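Data deposition worksheet. Section B asks for the primary sequence of the deposited chain exactly as it was used as input, without tags or linkers unless they were present during the calculation. Section C holds the resulting structure in token form. Section D is free text for depositor observations; keep each observation to a single sentence. Incomplete worksheets are returned to the depositor.
Section A, Depositor: J.P.
Section B:
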Amino acid sequence: MSPVSSGRDADLGLIRTLRSTAVAFHRSRVAVLKVGGEAAWDLLDRVLPCELYLREGQLLPTLLLHDDGTIAADLTVGADAEDFWLLVEGMTAEEVLARLDEAREPDEDIVLIDLSEQLSAVGVEGPYAWRALEAAGHTGASRLPFLSFQELEGGLWTGRTGRSGEYGYLLLVPTSEVSEILASLDGLLLAGPAELAHCTVEAFGFDVHHPLCTGLDPLSLQLQWRLCRQKGHVRGMEALAARRRLPEAQRQRTVGLRGPAGMSPGEVLLLDGEAAGRVLSAVPWLGPGGGSIGVGLLPLPCAHPGLDALSVATGPVR
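Section C:
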């Protein structure tokens, strides 16, 4: 059986399947680029706000920032033998290439390649994702370490990323062969952006496509681990340092939430009856007890685990 598409709304049955076995995704919003040449490392070190220490075959999650320190793109960089892969969501390939081109020095040996038309991203997620790939002939998937990539038997670029919070992979496949690759994953259902967004909330992950994350910075979203403070020269890092110096009462931070059924994004979070923050995202909780699970934004002084004095209009929130 070849993969079957879900609908526009999150299909809870598909999410249960992902959590128990595996499902496939066509990750059409991932832009794929390569940076090569003798000065490739120097250019990326100037542009990326992370410590660019990578062994061959390693993947490193980082970000691109706007000038004001807010997040422009979710970016993963991978080191190949002689060049670097960039997997980007939130900015187009053209926008990323323009930022790289702007930062290059005259006469530097740099090759910038947009592969977004030639290659498409396919995700396979779930605790038995490795078995689905092995059964499709991609020998070696089960031995691939987390945040690493290689070309498995059959020639597919395969990275182990776990985007949904489960054991998972990202494949880069020729765009003309996406349907064929999906069909080769015999028995896997095809999920979509709605299911991936749901699983990201469950895993307390970062979804750059979520509209309520627009205008938030890595400090608020607990993504400082993707950055290096010493990279103050990188675009957006100086503004982020200024945000870090603000009094705690003026700063916010995301927290995980458990609340009543029907809790929805945008709702006001009340603390002892007074408006304190807002719900950024919320989905039905499929675990014991039901209700909703989500992510909220609260002032830093009260954004800590175990706080049980919160509520929304329909009931208490922890």
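Section D:
Residues 1-7 have pLDDT under 50 and may be disordered.
The helical segments are 12-20, 40-47, 93-103, 129-135, 178-184, 193-202, 237-244.
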